[in-house]
Amino acid sequence: MSLRHAILVLLQDQEASGYDLAREFANSIGLVWNATHQQIYLELGKLNDQSMVKYRHIPQDGKPDKKLYRITDEGRDELIRWLRKPAAPPRIRDAFMVKIAGGDLSDSASILRELDDQTDLRRERLNTFESLASKLDDTSRDRDLFTYLTLRRGILDQQAWLHWADEVRSALKKREEQPVSVPTSV
Amino acid sequence: MSLRHAILVLLQDQEASGYDLAREFANSIGLVWNATHQQIYLELGKLNDQSMVKYRHIPQDGKPDKKLYRITDEGRDELIRWLRKPAAPPRIRDAFMVKIAGGDLSDSASILRELDDQTDLRRERLNTFESLASKLDDTSRDRDLFTYLTLRRGILDQQAWLHWADEVRSALKKREEQPVSVPTSV
DNA sequence: AGTTGCTGCGCAATCCGTTGAATAAGTAGT
DNA sequence: ACTACTTATTCAACGGATTGCGCAGCAACT
User: How does residue B140 score in pLDDT terms, banded at 50, 70 and 90?
Assistant: First the structure.
């Protein structure tokens, strides 16, 4: 139950609309916590009911109106309270890894195909994170230390994944070179 | 929706009770997909209704009776069908990382405390995975290739995390040595 | 004698999250 | 002209997941 807290963290820096937040969840924070726009709007509604955030209505022409949310003192208190409690263990839901674990039932070709797709995605992400991190020069790296550390986490994560993918590729290649009769299930 | 498939993957190798599966979810597969016993029992019930699995009732004395589940042909078909479809992108729910991202509101001491706790956990996991992986010698590494690759994923993941944790520690240390006045929120 | 912990299963309430859709107006491309 | 995309919010339905509880007996520790 800490989508709310992720939102509060984002609102700490700047006033934002649900739409803005959704975009940030798709990028930066998405590395750490992901959410769809429906979820975000719902949660913003609840946070508003509990006066953790408040908004001002911005009429726009050409574009639809929007609500700019900002965090309240109650919101900041709640966030600080939450930060003090030990974090809940991460829930892991990696369907691709389940497929790897059940790899005996697949053929190498389809595994490799999906591995390559994932590799492209990860490589792209790595580039994004690296260019964001390099934009934080040494001076701003002090101010935005935690942004930097979050990015570092993402970078190391992608690198580890890509390294693993190489291992998978060479293992599958080796297996095909010496095709020892593989039992259906072991 | 692939708790069911994770269960089917596990049942592919051996007959197991809900309790057995829960233990495996707490360890090996837990690295990749986690679930509580309630969820598992519920899903086993559904899988049974759809005749993806069947069970035999084992009366025991001293211990409670149990149900030993095994996968059916329908279950294996369903699993193979699922393996062919592209996997859903992993959902990430890492509360600890949200706390890091909001680190400006915490004090270094409490961050370090939690970082150390997590480090212990990760190190322990790394040891477990490494000893499991080394048990798979070269011959069985061919048979259990996908078990091995899953373990490698876990190992690389823990290593990357531990490396990141070191970066965090030295960054926080450096910050305290030169305590530039840190604004309340940036 | 009492507590804790392990084996083993299950239900109910509630909450979290996803899927799918609707509305509405502008802009950019084919 | 038509299609597709972007900005911006919201609702409804369903299914997945968590929390809390309950039963039951044995083993082991204090």
Answer: confident
